[in-house]
Design brief:
O-methyltransferase C-terminal domain-containing protein; O-methyltransferase activity; 10 helices; COMT_C; alpha/beta; transferase; two-stranded antiparallel sheet; COMT-like; seven-stranded mixed sheet
């Protein structure tokens, strides 16, 4: 365990421990009682915004440099490790792709690994302004490509690293529609690749995994407007966004690769 707290270790998780104990992360838990006793919350009002004068997490990341720094360091370490597992378990799913947009691509770690493993793939890193420049907005437009890869979101917090679990059902459908437009405008086909947690899936079905998912669902409820979803809940979103079919492949721990086909 101590090895994960050594800053020079490639498996370093020290940043996440520091972030989880930062007042900005702790204050929403302290204000939870006051939040739950108030009249029914309006859309976009959850313990994090209640504790931070209406500011959402991505706004705090933008305005508080130490939080942005810890977020970027923590996500970067996690991506470094996850990228190896993704290519080892699911590398074949990238065969034949000529272009990919890495949504929530952070500083491009997975794109670099993909480009090294598959020299023929043109990778575009797509994220918010506090992470990369030029920046993008998944609600406005995603560049056309053979595949759109949805994973780490810079609006994530603690262990909440996956794009769709940060957002409401309505927002998820909007994101998925933009992703569908991107892959169909490229060559009329393509696919959307999503890294997520799926409650109740075989990769997350034992008691320990269920307990972890319940904890993560609580963290999401405190911090953003999303939730941990079951496969039927995901399937409903995919259908509403216009996708014809999907597959789920376990990758690492609670994380799975979901592939959507128009």
């Amino acid at each position: 365990m101590c090895g994960f707290l050594v800053k020079d270790s490639p498996f370093n998780a020290a940043t996440w421990f520091l972030l989880a104990n930062d007042p900005i992360a702790v204050d929403p838990w302290r204000s939870f009682g006051a939040w739950i006793r108030q009249p029914p919350a309006a859309a976009g009002d959850f313990p994090f915004t209640h504790a931070h004068n209406g500011k959402k997490l991505y706004e705090v990341c933008r305005d508080v440099p130490r939080i942005a720094k810890m977020m970027n360091e923590g996500i970067g370490r996690d991506i470094w490790l996850f990228s190896k597992a993704l290519l080892a378990k699911c590398g074949s799913h990238f065969n034949g792709l000529k272009s990919i947009v890495d949504v929530g691509g952070h500083t491009g770690t997975i794109s670099e690994d993909l480009a090294e493993a598959f020299p023929g793939i043109h990778c575009t890193v797509f994220d918010l302004a506090q992470v990369v420049s030029p920046a993008g907005d998944v609600f406005q437009e995603i560049p056309p490509a053979d595949a759109v890869f949805l994973k780490v979101s810079s609006s994530s917090f603690q262990c909440m690293q996956w794009v769709l679990c940060d957002w409401s059902d309505e927002s998820c459908v909007k994101i998925l529609k933009q992703a569908k437009a991107a892959v169909t405008s490229s060559n009329g086909g393509g696919k959307v690749m999503i890294v997520e947690m799926v409650a109740g899936h075989q990769s997350c079905s034992d008691r320990e995994a269920t307990g972890t998912l319940l904890y993560l669902d609580m963290v999401i409820m405190m911090t953003v407007e999303g939730k941990v979803r079951t496969e039927p809940q995901f399937a409903k979103l995919f259908s509403e966004a216009g996708f014809a079919s999907y597959t789920i492949t376990p990758v690492c721990g609670l994380r799975v690769l979901i592939q959507l086909y128009p």
